[in-house]
Amino acid sequence: MTSMTKHMTRRSVTNVVMLTLTGACAFLTVAVMFYILGYLAWHGGRALSWNFFTKLPAAVNVAGGGMANAIVGSAKLLLLACCIGVPVGILAGIYLSEFAGQTLGSVVRFMVDLLNGVPSIVIGIFAYTVIVLPMHTFSTLAGGFALGIMMIPISVRSTEEYLRAVPSSLREASLALGAARWVTIVRIVIPAAFRGILTGVMLALARVAGETAPLLFTAFGNSYWSTGWTRATASLPVMIYTYAISPYDDWHRQAWAAGLVLLALVLVVNIVTRMALARKMPLSR
Amino acid sequence: MNTTDLAAPSGNGFAGAWRRVSRVGLGDAVAHGITLLAGTGIFVLVGVLFTELWVNSRLARDRFGWKFLVTSVWDPISQHFGALPFLYGTLVTSLLALVIAIPLGLGTAVFLVELVPVWMSDWLAFIIDLLAAVPSVVYGLLGIFILVPIIRSTVEPFLQSTLGFLPIFQGPAYGVGFLAAGVILGIMVVPFIVSVSREVLLAVPQEQREAALSLGATQWEAASQVVVPYARSGILGSIFLALARALGETMAVTMVIGNDPRIHASLFAPGYSIAAVIANEFTEATSTLYIHALIELGLILFGLTFVLNALARLLILATVRRGMVRP
């Protein structure tokens, strides 16, 4: 009898210990997020000033430099990325949700997942061989192309997901009224899923906004303004990298500031879009 | 009736053909065509990507052949290139990342699914998902200025004094090196393990838990002996996914691994990874052979992650499907 009780006690002690450990794991993981946030806010906040947004990078040991050119550079790169990634992503998403059959659909879906898993540095090599090599110059174009490719898989999957969430009764009602399929898609299905598609695109944008590796040898870098689309350009992520590995304290402070700006941008987009999604699209319950 | 409707006008030349097309819907055909183009375009894109890597690495492939994979010399001056130090660095740091991320991620996922109410689980999972959204260069920044000093001053001396008899914990404490890269990678891939594992654990039918509990199992026994094994292939999938992420991760590793193309047994020593050497040396490569060797490294990375991702997707798919099917 006592051995039985001992056995039971051991089991319930194991139970409590192990469950507490899983709780500790969860606490640790969540704490890392807050630690990152807090640390960047503290270090970046101290280094952030108005100059950061309005001035060009200053020479070493000259105070008051900023990253205005990198901010504009990043904006141009993201604009270009949207021009490439969004149309392809949304169209392919529509195909998967509305037209694709079983076989071809799952093959394309599989390919999209694999493209999503291709390391960003490899995408950078690809953009280098197809754009930088023929043009003989680093350019905004090449960087935007690389980021655009990276946007495709995320926008495809989210577009497909939210189109699928539109109830089929809506489609059937429209078809029953005599509307063609494409009219149904354009006038009924897409508007119903519009918010979801938009948030998917925003999330894709937030992801590529922080990408550094594919820009290293496509957009390269630049200490001045980059005009047009066919010249090397500075971007926030690459600036963080170059400044962080430099030996100058002043540049390290700038890197923290840029890190804070980038992180804030990415997190705000993520939080806002996911909040919007949590309330769901009006039509799908 | 439908057949005759469609077939009848086809004999009447252009007007008939037009009527037929507009009946099945020209607009529909065009819409189908355009979206199909985008869908297959992705297929083509992956194909072209592979071809570009293949073609632009030909000099290195012709020159070194398969020996590229097992040569440990990387000497741009004498134009001799081997991938072994980078393969080693990539594998060591990725495995180290898994050693950290698997218990942490799995523990977190079990906690989120088995122990907390749904609303809280959703919130915590949301915060953990945000970890995956933090740009890797920001991880690198934190790695250089926070993690590396801590590892140099505290972690490495501690490991050396307690486990120093193992060859992997010997040598001077540099701070930068395999250990730092592995730790930061581990933190970076935890969210992938958590979110996918949580999903597959949620897909385990409730009856499985109830059956175990009704037989007198404790909550931990039900989770560890019934629920987790039920979802094991999906969890394995999440681990593959995390591994693929870790293998290809560039910036954070580049910033803390120390950039030394030599093979060291000690985790404290500086090393190099495939992605890091591409990031560091691509713009400095002076000869075509040098560039081609770097692109061949990219090709290896592409192949590795491609296979791992494919395996991961299949495993996850299999588990989620199984969970949905009611026995």
The geometry of chain A reads as flat
Q: Uncertain regions of chain A: pLDDT < 50 for 5+ in a row? A: 280-285
- Determine the number of helices of chain A (DSSP H or I, runs of at least 4 residues): 10
Q: Which structural class should the secondary elements of chain B be placed in?
A: mainly alpha
CATH superfamily of the largest domain in chain B: MetI-like
Taken together, the total number of domains of chain A comes to 1
Q: Give the beta-strand count of chain B.
A: 2
How many individual domains of chain B? 2
The overall pLDDT average of chain B reads 88
Strand content of chain A: under 5%
- CATH topology description of chain A: MetI-like fold
Radius of gyration of chain B (Å)? 26 Å
Q: Which series of helices and strands of chain A comes N to C? A: HHHHHHHHHH
State the end-to-end CA separation of chain A.
55 Å
Q: Please give the oligomerization state of what you see.
A: heterodimer
Mean pLDDT of chain A: 89
* Strand numbers in spatial order across the main sheet of chain B: 1-2
The first-level CATH class name of chain A: Mainly Alpha
The major β-sheet of chain A equals: none
As a whole number of angstroms, the C-alpha radius of gyration of chain A is: 24 Å
Task: Give a structural overview.
The complex is a heterodimer of chains A (285) and B (327). Chain A has a single domain (53-278), classed as MetI-like fold. With 285 residues, chain A is mainly alpha-helical. Chain A has helices spanning 2-47, 50-54, 68-99, 102-117, 120-135, 140-164, 168-176, 181-209, 236-244, 249-278. In chain A, α4 (102-117) crosses α6 (140-164) and α5 (120-135) crosses α6 (140-164). Mean pLDDT of chain A is 89; it is low at 280-285. The longest helix of chain A has 46 residues, at 2-47. In chain A, 76% of the residues lie in helices and 0% in strands. With 327 residues, chain B is mainly α. Chain B folds into two domains: 2-55, no CATH class; 62-324, MetI-like (MetI-like fold, Orthogonal Bundle). Chain B contains 14 helices and two strands; from the N terminus they run ααααββαααααααααα. Chain B has helices spanning 2-7, 13-24, 26-55, 58-64, 84-115, 118-133, 136-163, 178-202, 206-214, 219-230, 232-248, 251-256, 274-281, 288-324, and strands at 74-75, 80-81. Chain B has a two-stranded antiparallel ribbon. In chain B, β1 (74-75) and β2 (80-81) form a beta hairpin. In chain B, α6 (118-133) runs antiparallel to α8, α9 packs antiparallel against α10 and α13 crosses α14 (288-324). The longest helix of chain B is centred in the last third of the chain and has 37 residues, at 288-324. Chain B starts with a helix and ends with a helix. Residues 1-11 of chain B have low confidence and may be disordered. At the A-B interface, α1, α3, α4, α5 and α6 of A face α3, α5, α6, α7 and α8 of B.
